[in-house]
UniProtKB/TrEMBL annotation:
Name of the featured protein: NAD(P)/FAD-dependent oxidoreductase
Listed transmembrane segments: none
Sequence ranges assigned to domain FAD/NAD(P)-binding in this UniProt record: 17-334
Signal peptide extent: none
Lineage: Bacteria, Bacillati, Actinomycetota, Actinomycetes, Kitasatosporales
A Pfam cross-reference name: Pyr_redox_2
Record Gene3D superfamilies: 3.30.390.30, FAD/NAD(P)-binding domain
Keywords in alphabetical order: FAD, Flavoprotein, NAD
Cofactor section: FAD
Family listed: Belongs to the class-I pyridine nucleotide-disulfide oxidoreductase family.
Domain Pyridine nucleotide-disulphide oxidoreductase dimerisation: 371-476
Length: 487
C-alpha cells in the first residue's frame, strides 16, 4: 500500500485517490480539509449543493431569519428602546438577508473552497461499489469509477421523515426546507413537532407575522432539562402562538391545492391552517449509496467506533461522520467528528499509532460527554453535557444546582424583567460538571464557557477562580457556584 503522499496526476486520471468523501457539506469538507493537510489525495462527491443541508436549508438560513425576530424582541425588553420599535418586521429585508447568507442557493463559492484544498470535486450520486470503490453518476448520465487506497467517508447527512398519516400527500406539507427557503408568510401555520426544529420554526414564523399553532405530543425540547421546554413554550405563548402539548395529528385534508389544510387531531378536534410543517424526526441518507455492496443495510444509521470507523466492515477503511452515525445531529458536532476522522485516516495511512484513548487526538470523546446545543428561540435554550435525569441514569452520584437569572445584575441590565434559569449538574465524587443548561435571552454566548468546563472537567475549586466580568449575563456562573457551596 502506497503512503499518504502517493497522490499523482496519473492516479487521479485513473480515478485513484487516498480518500473519497461522499457528501460536501460542512462535515465532509472538514474530512477533506484534514486529509489534504496530511498530504492525502482526496475526491469529494456531492449530489446536491456543495455546502449541504446546513448551508442552504438548516443552520445558516434559519439563523439568518431568526436573528431579526430576536433582535426586535430584545429591543422590546429594554425601556427606551421599545418605544423606538414600531410596525412589523420588514419581511422583504428578512428574506433578502437570508438570501445573502445562502448566496441565493449558488454553491460556486463553496465548490471553489473544496477545490482550493486540492481536492477533486465530483457532482452526482456517489454509491459504494464494493470495498474502497465508489461509482459517481452525474445528472447527465456520465459515470466516474473511483477507488480509495485508504478510506471512504460517508458524510451524506439526514433527511426529514414524514409520519404515516392519512392525507399526507394531499396536504403537501412543509419540512425544514420549505420552512427556511419560503419567501411567503402564511397567515396561519401549523408546526407539528416540539424538538429543536419545531420550536425554532414556530418562533421564526410567529415573529414574521403568521398565526402559529405548535402541536407536540410531548413537552417541548424533551432532551433538555424540563424547565427549558417550559420557558420556551411560555415565550411562544406570550408572542401569540397557540402551543398545544399532548396534541397528535391523526389525519390531514386539503382538497384544493391552493386552499387551506385541515388537521384532524387524535382527540377529534380540528385545526385549519394555510400551511402545515412537520418537524417530527430525521432519517439517514444512506438508502441509495450502495451499503448493500459492503454488507450493510441500506437506509440504516451506521454504528461507528471512537474514530468513526463503521462497525462490521473489514479492513478499517469505511468511516461514517455526522448525522449518518446518529450520535448527535448537529453540524458543529459533525464537523468535530470530521476533523477527528480525517486525522485518524492520515495516521492509519502513514502507519502511525492511533491516539484513540478518551480525549485523544483520534477519539470523538465529546460525542458522549460534552455535546453543546443551542436553540435560537425566545428565550434561547442552550445546554451541554448531561441533564440531571441523564446523569442519574448513567450511574453518577449528582447534585443539581438551579439559579434564576434575576440573581445576576448583568442579566437585569441586559433586559428589563429578564426571565431565565440556569442549572449545573455536579458529579459529587469528582466535583466536576457533568452538564450545564441556560435558558434566557442571549444565553447562547454563555455556552462555550460551559462546554470548556464540562469537556476539560475543570474542578469546581478551580472554576470559582474564573471571574465573570461585572455587569454581564455571565455573572450567573458566580451564583451557580455560590449556591453549590452553600449546599
Amino acid at each position: 500500500m502506497r503512503g499518504p503522499m502517493s497522490d499523482t496526476h496519473a492516479d487521479r486520471e485513473n480515478g485513484s485517490y487516498d480518500v473519497i468523501v461522499l457528501g460536501a457539506g460542512p462535515v465532509g469538507q472538514n474530512v477533506a480539509d484534514r486529509a489534504r493537510a496530511a498530504g492525502l489525495g482526496v475526491a469529494v462527491v456531492e449530489r446536491e449543493l456543495v455546502g449541504g443541508e446546513c448551508s442552504y436549508w438548516a443552520c445558516v438560513p434559519s439563523k439568518a431569519l431568526l436573528r431579526p425576530v430576536i433582535a426586535v424582541a430584545d429591543a422590546r425588553r429594554v425601556d427606551g428602546a421599545r418605544e423606538a420599535v414600531t410596525g412589523r418586521l420588514g419581511t422583504g429585508g428578512v428574506f433578502g438577508r437570508r438570501n445573502r447568507y445562502v448566496t441565493d442557493w449558488d454553491d460556486s463559492g463553496q465548490a471553489a473552497f473544496v477545490t482550493s484544498l486540492g481536492a477533486d470535486l465530483f457532482r452526482g450520486l456517489g454509491r459504494l461499489d464494493g470495498p474502497r470503490r465508489v461509482t459517481v453518476t452525474g445528472d447527465d448520465g456520465t459515470t466516474h469509477h473511483l477507488t480509495a487506497r485508504h478510506a471512504v467517508a460517508l458524510a451524506t447527512g439526514s433527511r426529514p421523515v414524514l409520519p404515516d398519516i392519512p392525507g399526507m400527500a394531499e396536504a403537501r406539507p412543509w419540512t425544514n426546507r420549505q420552512g427556511t427557503d419560503s419567501s411567503t408568510v402564511p397567515a396561519r401555520l401549523a408546526v407539528v413537532g416540539g424538538g429543536g426544529v419545531g420550536v425554532e420554526m414556530a418562533t421564526l414564523w410567529q415573529g414574521l407575522g403568521s398565526q402559529v399553532s405548535l402541536l407536540a405530543r410531548r413537552p417541548l425540547l424533551p432532551r433538555m432539562e424540563p424547565f427549558a421546554g417550559e420557558l420556551v413554550a411560555d415565550g411562544l405563548a406570550k408572542a401569540g402562538a397557540d402551543v398545544r402539548i399532548g396534541a397528535e395529528v391523526a389525519a390531514l385534508h386539503r382538497p384544493d391545492p391552493r386552499g387551506p389544510v385541515t388537521l384532524t387531531l387524535a382527540d377529534g378536534s380540528r385545526l385549519e391552517a394555510d400551511e402545515v410543517m412537520f418537524a417530527t424526526g430525521r432519517a439517514p441518507r444512506t438508502d441509495d449509496i450502495g451499503l448493500e455492496t459492503v454488507g450493510l443495510t441500506p437506509g440504516s444509521w451506521l454504528d461507528v467506533d471512537t474514530t468513526c470507523l463503521v462497525a462490521g466492515v473489514e479492513g478499517a477503511w469505511l468511516y461514517a461522520v455526522g448525522d449518518v452515525n446518529h450520535r448527535a445531529l448537529l453540524t458543529h458536532q459533525g464537523k468535530y467528528q470530521g476533523r477527528t476522522a480525517g486525522d485518524a485516516m492520515a495516521a492509519r495511512a502513514a502507519g502511525r499509532p492511533l491516539d484513540d484513548a478518551p480525549w485523544g487526538d483520534h477519539a470523538t470523546t465529546a460525542d458522549q460527554h460534552a455535546v453543546p446545543q443551542v436553540f435560537f428561540t425566545d428565550p434561547e435554550a442552550a445546554a451541554v453535557g448531561l441533564s440531571a435525569e441523564q446523569a442519574v441514569r448513567a450511574g453518577h452520584r449528582t447534585k443539581s444546582v438551579d439559579v434564576d437569572f434575576t440573581a445576576a445584575q448583568g442579566a437585569n441590565l441586559y433586559a428589563d424583567g429578564y426571565r431565565g434559569k440556569a442549572r449545573m449538574v455536579v458529579d459529587l465524587d469528582r466535583e466536576v460538571l457533568l452538564g450545564v443548561t441556560f435558558v434566557g435571552p442571549g444565553v447562547s454566548e454563555l455556552l462555550h464557557s460551559a462546554t470548556v468546563a464540562v469537556a476539560a472537567e475543570v474542578p469546581l475549586k478551580r472554576l470559582r477562580h474564573a471571574i465573570a466580568c461585572f455587569p454581564t449575563v455571565s455573572e450567573i456562573w458566580l451564583f451557580l457556584l455560590a449556591a453549590y457551596e452553600r449546599g
